[in-house]
């Protein structure tokens, strides 16, 4: 795998370099357009700065959220361009489309050392299409913009998408420093985790992570499940979960996983149940056997937090992905805080993976340096630990 250092060594002054970044940053739930955590933008700064300072014409591209293959103002990267400019200390030009007339004109007008951010890649159906020809056609358009390709979007390397998988096949390609570092740390954790090895999972992308649980089960000593995904497991155990997040079609899979796990999957024993998804909602701690039918669980309860913390305390390796509750709303942040604090205290190595989990560490004011590694990719790091080939990494290795 060639790296950014190799490219810089070859010289990039006056050359056009396409940087795939993961600028899928979280926004303040109450204030649309306001970025709540810019960790992912900061993580790609060393790459952008190095290229800019070496005189490259830098074309940055990213996805944001999950728009449906067409422009959708809710998912514009415009606020991210502004923030990136502030972080870089130099203007970031923003193109109002990805490969359209505006992008073409702005790429053509780039001068040495300038940085341009294209509009959301996922405004184009070719980015995420399962049809190789459709993806390829979009990658052809992107390839016209640049002489070189650098992938620094670790959070997206598990996606077989045009900008991640097809584009590097069309341009000389290099791994950015962030991708190199993330892969190095995760390789160590997946190949030789010191035991006991505890994995903590939460968040809301339930079906994404059920497959991961299956693959991780044989490798871990304990798998703690909180967040939105625990309710499908609780349902599988026969509990009623009210209006909580539930993937009915996965209940049977959860039953099988629980049977296979032989006690190694640990579920909450209580939750904070609220009348609605809001910071002002009426809420109370409920035993999992007594979740009211008209309420939804938005955090694990205090007894669960203690239970999880004691399982974490003896671990030598902890991997954590996915908040334990809706930590963005103060009444539902205690579970995530408690679990995160327990992880900071272990006598061993910890990895935090995922945009929202990393954001939780920072927005809850926890000491980032108390974690072994904070990864910018949740799904990506999980799939790496699972032992899957990551399309973005495979494409860089070719
Ligand atoms: N009980 C819950 N119900 C609904 N959403 C939840 C619940 N617990 C956590 N979440 C939400 O899950 C989101 C993070 O999920 P996810 O994207 O899977 O994590 P990550 O980005 O760390 O991989 C957060 O925005 C959080 O509010
Ligand atoms: O936020 C991301 O993943 P993560 O929440 O698993 O860390 C990445 O930007 C990938 O986004 P996607 O899961 O919509 O492909």
TrEMBL record:
Q: Which domain of life is it from?
A: Bacteria
What is catalyzed by this enzyme? Answer: (2R)-3-phosphoglycerate + ATP = (2R)-3-phospho-glyceroyl phosphate + ADP
Against SUPFAM superfamilies, the record matches this protein to: Phosphoglycerate kinase
The keyword ATP-binding belongs to this UniProt entry's keyword annotation:
yes
Q: Where in the cell is it found?
A: Cytoplasm
Q: What is the protein's quaternary organization?
A: Monomer.
The answer, when asked if Transferase is one of the entry's keywords, is yes
Gene Ontology molecular function terms on file: ADP binding; ATP binding; phosphoglycerate kinase activity
Sites binding (2R)-3-phosphoglycerate sit at 40, 122, 159
Family, per entry: Belongs to the phosphoglycerate kinase family.
Q: Where does ATP bind?
A: 209, 297, 328, 354-357
Q: Which organism is it from?
A: Actinoplanes siamensis
**What EC number(s) is this enzyme filed under?**
2.7.2.3
Kindly give the PROSITE patterns that the UniProt entry links to this protein.
PGLYCERATE_KINASE
State any GO BP term from the record.
Answer: gluconeogenesis
UniProtKB keywords: ATP-binding, Cytoplasm, Glycolysis, Kinase, Nucleotide-binding, Transferase
InterPro entries recorded for this chain? Answer: Phosphoglycerate_kinase, Phosphoglycerate_kinase_CS, Phosphoglycerate_kinase_N, Phosphoglycerate_kinase_sf
Binding-site residues for substrate, renumbered to this chain: 22-24, 40, 63-66, 122, 159
Q: What class of enzyme is it?
A: transferase
Q: What is this protein's name?
A: Phosphoglycerate kinase
PANTHER family per the record? PHOSPHOGLYCERATE KINASE, PHOSPHOGLYCERATE KINASE 1, CHLOROPLASTIC-RELATED
**A Pfam family:** PGK
């Amino acid at each position: 795998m060639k790296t950014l250092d190799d490219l810089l060594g070859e010289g990039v002054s006056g050359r056009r370099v396409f940087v795939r970044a993961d600028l899928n940053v979280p926004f303040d739930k109450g204030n649309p357009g306001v970025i709540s955590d810019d960790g992912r933008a900061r993580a790609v700064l060393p790459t952008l700065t190095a290229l800019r300072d070496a005189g490259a014409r830098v074309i940055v591209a990213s996805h944001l959220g999950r728009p449906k293959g067409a422009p959708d103002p809710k998912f514009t990267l415009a606020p991210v361009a502004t923030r990136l400019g502030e972080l870089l200390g130099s203007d970031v030009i923003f193109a109002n489309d990805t490969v359209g007339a505006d992008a073409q004109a702005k790429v053509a007008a780039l001068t040495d050392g300038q940085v341009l951010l294209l509009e959301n890649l996922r405004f184009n159906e070719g980015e995420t299409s399962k049809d190789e020809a459709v993806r390829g056609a979009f990658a052809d358009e992107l390839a016209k913009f640049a002489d070189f390709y650098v992938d620094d979007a670790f959070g997206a390397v598990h996606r077989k998408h045009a900008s991640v998988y097809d584009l590097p096949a069309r341009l000389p390609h290099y791994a950015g420093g962030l991708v190199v570092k993330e892969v190095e740390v995760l390789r160590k954790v997946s190949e030789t985790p010191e035991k006991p090895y505890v994995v903590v999972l939460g968040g809301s992308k339930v079906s994404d992570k059920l497959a991961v649980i299956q693959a991780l089960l044989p490798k871990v000593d304990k798998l703690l499940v909180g967040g939105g995904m625990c309710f499908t497991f609780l349902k599988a155990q026969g509990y009623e979960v009210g209006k909580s997040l539930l993937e009915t079609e996965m209940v049977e899979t959860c039953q099988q996983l629980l049977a296979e796990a032989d006690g190694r999957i640990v579920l909450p024993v209580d939750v904070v149940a609220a009348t609605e998804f809001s910071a002002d909602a009426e809420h109370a701690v409920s035993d999992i056997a007594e979740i009211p039918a008209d309420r939804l669980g938005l955090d694990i309860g205090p007894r669960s937090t203690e239970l999880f913390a004691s399982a974490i305390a003896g671990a030598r390796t902890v991997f954590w992905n996915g908040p334990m509750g809706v930590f963005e709303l103060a009444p539902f942040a205690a579970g995530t805080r408690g679990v995160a604090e327990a992880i900071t205290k272990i006598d061993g190595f910890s990895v935090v993976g995922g945009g929202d989990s990393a954001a939780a560490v920072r927005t809850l004011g926890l000491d980032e340096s108390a974690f072994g590694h904070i990864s910018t990719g949740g799904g990506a790091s999980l799939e790496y630990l699972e032992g899957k080939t990551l399309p973005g990494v495979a494409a860089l290795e070719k």
